[in-house]
Amino acid sequence: IKYLARHVVAADRLAMEVASLYRRVLPTPPAVEFASPEGRRLFAEALEGGTMEGFFSLVPHFQTQSEPAFCGLASIAVVLNALAIDPGRRWKGPWRWFDESMLDCCEPLHVVRSQGITFGKVVCLARCAGASVRCFRADHAAVHDLRAHLARCASSRDCHLIASYHRGHFKQTGGGHFSPIGGYHAGTDMALILDVARFKYPPHWVPLTLLWEAMNTTDKTTGFPRGYLS
Amino acid sequence: IKYLARHVVAADRLAMEVASLYRRVLPTPPAVEFASPEGRRLFAEALEGGTMEGFFSLVPHFQTQSEPAFCGLASIAVVLNALAIDPGRRWKGPWRWFDESMLDCCEPLHVVRSQGITFGKVVCLARCAGASVRCFRADHAAVHDLRAHLARCASSRDCHLIASYHRGHFKQTGGGHFSPIGGYHAGTDMALILDVARFKYPPHWVPLTLLWEAMNTTDKTTGFPRGYLS
User: Among the record's GO biological process terms, what is one (chains A, B) (predicted)?
Assistant: First the structure.
């Protein structure tokens, strides 16, 4: 199956929808796109280095956030499914499975839909779902903690990191965002962000120090800095 | 974030839901789980061999079918998004993006929800969305065609295969199924199935000849054999 050039019929319809968007161009640098030649080289080297182990359990559950403000819920759902945590209740048909719509135990979904969710409530949600979570706010941790935690989780298959950060540090549009981290490249000290806003940006590698700076920003809703969950 | 053993509270709730299921055990052999040590070895070798190129554009869009009978719709959505085909209409917020709920141009969604979808209508849907599609029914192609097409698409980033097959050949529960193919391992002649029923089976490698046999089965709804789209 291939892209077909005659898809210009769609362009006519687009002319009537000036305010709608088809993805955003990923600012590179500072990011390196996952599927670019450089991204594939980083992937292959990190795989060789043993810091893509977590990727193999995480990427089978990588998903698109189902609402523009559901980045926190989608990040949690990816990790809960990757850890094979049984929700203990049905999703659809006979199947038990974590879907964003089932993550309503710390904040009503209609509130998340309109305002997003805070770092503290994402921690609450992960715990409510049965995960063991440690949270690191940027004012109580340092970049070397993030590096150590990421290197360890990326080298194993039983823990995963979720980053809470501000997109501005990567020259990306938008503000606060959540996404799981899918791997680590030790040689260049870069982290692979599996961005759950897949309709906007593809997965991408970013310098870990810049990711730390993006975490070390204040969430205006809470007055506290962002950080990461491990 | 880790699995927490105290998640036994859920087990109590489970006792009351005897007919519900948390995943199925993947029969191995014939399949090899993507995240198993052998699966990771196959992946690394195929990556080295240049037949995982398509994986890098496909896996960023890998998704879970949103309904038990939406395997065809989910497979198409994964491939359309991987090919960066603009749907020309909004999904949510300002974003244009392919979601299964937008794939209603060849069969009404309520029909697909209750009965699934046929090979022919999946081809129709991919074309309707603007993709260039060639379809190969098992009675008009041979296993070497499948191998040649897969080897070529797995080595590039601008085409992807969707398989229409019967799960029974892999000792899996269920009947006819659709899923995209995420890579090829030439040395062992195995294909990586990115199974969209992620609540049931994880991604897995299968022998290509067995996949061909699973395609070479009759869909009782149409009376025609299954096959693949390229």
Answer: detoxification of copper ion
